[in-house]
């Protein structure tokens, strides 16, 4: 699924595409994503304004644990994902139209997140 499809799916669950708010959230997400083996979209993008990363609610993000050398905006990458480094779960920006198999929708606690999958 693309970033937009992931976001829409979460909205259909009455939820939103989750994004880690701190290192602790990152560790919990890593657990949900099979110890980081499952590459997943996270709810952060700079679609509206290049270089300004916002969550899916349109709020500016302050917690932005990028992987080394990221975000590089290569060929205009505007959406964040987890999985470039399965150990640290640091972020990378990538093409919003790429197909990823996983996304995590937020619930009351990130540990209760709904993991949605789409395999082709
Ligand atoms: Ca960008
Ligand atoms: Ca990138």
Automatic annotation (TrEMBL):
The keyword Manganese does not apply. It comes from the Eukaryota. Pfam families: Lectin_C. CDD domains: CLECT. The keyword Transmembrane does not apply. Residues 1-102 form the C-type lectin domain. Keywords: Disulfide bond, Lectin. This is Oidioi.mRNA.OKI2018_I69.PAR.g9194.t1.cds. It comes from Oikopleura dioica (Tunicate). The lineage of its organism: Eukaryota, Metazoa, Chordata, Tunicata, Appendicularia.
């Amino acid at each position: 699924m693309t970033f937009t499809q992931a976001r829409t799916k979460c909205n259909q669950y009455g939820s939103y595409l989750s994004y880690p708010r701190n290192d602790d959230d990152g560790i919990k997400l890593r657990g949900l994503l099979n110890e980081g083996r499952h590459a997943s979209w996270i709810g952060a993008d700079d679609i509206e304004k290049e270089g300004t990363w916002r969550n899916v609610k349109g709020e500016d993000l302050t917690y932005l644990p990028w992987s080394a050398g990221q975000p590089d905006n290569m060929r205009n990458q505007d959406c964040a994902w987890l999985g470039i480094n399965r150990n640290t779960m640091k972020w990378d920006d990538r093409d919003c139209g790429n197909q990823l198999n996983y996304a995590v929708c937020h619930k009351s606690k990130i540990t209760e997140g709904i993991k949605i999958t789409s395999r082709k």
